[in-house]
Fold this protein.
Amino acid sequence: MIDLRGKVALVTGGSRGIGRSTALLLARAGADLCLTYQSRADAAEGVVREAGELGRRAIAVRADAGIRADMEQVFDATEKAFGKLDIIVANAGIWKRAPIDEMSEEQWDETINANLRSVYLACHYASRRMKRQGSGSLILISSTAGQRGEPFYSHYAASKGAVIAMTKALAAELGPAGIRVNCVAPGWVRTDMTSHVFADPAYLRSVEKNTPVGRIASPDQIASVVLFLASDLASHLQGEIINVNGGSVLCG
């Protein structure tokens, strides 16, 4: 039912984890792809190769999503390769522990740049192009940490809470231009970023116990909601925060 043939999608942080699953699911639905990566060229090229095997055109651009010059390059490459942009998934981000009394300004800035400035830059450049064509879908990736906070990760929680507020602001701002803006807020997900915490069996059991469905999400389970938001099935959703957390945070 979901058909994205003829659409072009850009996924930041698209080489691993949620980004990788999202990029490949969009490709399976028919979208051509640009994805950004920061260090793992092999992983990024693997996504490009798999998208090609699905019959889709795809490119990978090395970029720090929080640096303006890098993102200018990404959007220029997307436009050169495909001529347009229909969907952007602002997914790039980091998650690093830092107690507030020990957190340096450098640690704070690193997380805010990676998780929030990157979203600003993605929306800044995407909206310029989407306004010209009178359509588009911005899908921002937040977190349950942005809704309930997270001890020892206050910089991460602050960045993700800001993404939620930004979603609502941009939904009102860009809706009249034909641009949909929505957000996905995952809970715990099994990715490279969280593998070290789930290496502790006791911690894993605790998380599962406190998640009503009793399990941790896979990246594909997050990507499937992104795919829905990118599709015409979500054509009347605007400014929504879709919580994909197995019931661990029950909020509107």
Summary: The chain has a mean pLDDT of 95. The first strand starts at residue 8 and ends at 11. The longest helix spans residues 105-133. The domain at 8-244 is CATH 3.40.50.720 (Rossmann fold).
